[in-house]
């Protein structure tokens, strides 16, 4: 096996999906895990399971900084796992330690979408504490701009606007194959 493939194979312990809320991380993550024969791991769901309360409750009882600390602890644990497709929360990449751990854990794929598409996808959502008081396009656009430098660290970026989950998963798989990543489905 060529040296480049050895590093590619070792780097693909996991696939990590980052991106703003509503970009498709959970839907894409579940199907991608199924197609690769990996487990699916939702970072926010892990936090909820471990804490025994919802993300909204964590935010309202303890604040965002407490949630971010829980998130970093969860990222540390998930970074040790193998053959997992990990869907992160939209703000998980803000912390430098989280970005480092996620990049060490495997291939980081950032999903994006237009502001209009995000608003459409999140219209009926009630479990988004950072959008509880303001769901306007301007607010979402501002949050996206603030997070863009962190999302830009991803190895692959895919705009999911107007694409099916299947199309996004296919793009990720093509990217992995082109770079010599291998897995046992």
TrEMBL record:
SUPFAM superfamilies assigned: P-loop containing nucleoside triphosphate hydrolases
Residues the record lists as binding substrate: 44, 68, 90, 147
Reactions it catalyzes: shikimate + ATP = 3-phosphoshikimate + ADP + H(+)
Enzyme's top EC category: transferase
Gene name per UniProt: aroK
Residues the record lists as binding Mg(2+): 26
Pathway membership, UniProt: Metabolic intermediate biosynthesis; chorismate biosynthesis; chorismate from D-erythrose 4-phosphate and phosphoenolpyruvate: step 5/7
Protein's UniProt name: Shikimate kinase
Keywords: Amino-acid biosynthesis, Aromatic amino acid biosynthesis, ATP-binding, Cytoplasm, Kinase, Magnesium, Metal-binding, Nucleotide-binding, Transferase
A GO molecular-function descriptor: kinase activity
One Pfam family, short name: SKI
Record text on subunit structure and interactions: Monomer.
Named cofactor requirement(s): Mg(2+)
UniProt record similarity statement: Belongs to the shikimate kinase family.
Chain residues that bind ATP: 22-27, 128
Organism: Geobacter benzoatilyticus
InterPro entries tied to this protein: P-loop_NTPase, Shikimate/glucono_kinase, Shikimate_kinase/TSH1, Shikimate_kinase_CS
N-terminal signal peptide: none
Function: Catalyzes the specific phosphorylation of the 3-hydroxyl group of shikimic acid using ATP as a cosubstrate.
Top-level division of the source organism's lineage: Bacteria
Cofactor stoichiometry and binding remark: Binds 1 Mg(2+) ion per subunit.
Lineage, uppermost ranks: Bacteria, Pseudomonadati, Thermodesulfobacteriota, Desulfuromonadia, Geobacterales
């Amino acid at each position: 096996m060529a040296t480049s493939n050895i590093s590619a194979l070792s780097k693909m312990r996991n696939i990590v999906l980052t991106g703003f809320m509503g970009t498709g991380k959970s839907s894409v993550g579940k199907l991608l895990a199924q197609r690769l024969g990996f487990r699916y791991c939702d970072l926010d769901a892990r936090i909820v399971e471990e804490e025994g309360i919802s993300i909204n409750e964590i935010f309202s009882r303890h604040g965002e900084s407490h949630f971010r600390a829980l998130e970093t602890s969860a990222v540390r644990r998930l970074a040790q796992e193998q053959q997992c497709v990990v869907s992160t929360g939209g703000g998980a990449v803000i912390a430098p330690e989280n970005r480092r751990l996620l990049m060490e854990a495997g291939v980081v794929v950032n999903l994006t979408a237009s502001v209009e598409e995000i608003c459409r996808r999140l219209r009926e959502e009630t479990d988004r504490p950072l959008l509880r008081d303001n769901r306007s396009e301007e607010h979402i656009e501002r949050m996206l701009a603030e997070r863009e430098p962190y999302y830009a660290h991803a190895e692959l970026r895919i705009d999911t606007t107007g694409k099916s989950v299947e199309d996004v998963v296919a793009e990720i798989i093509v990217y992995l194959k082109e770079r010599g990543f291998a897995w046992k489905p």
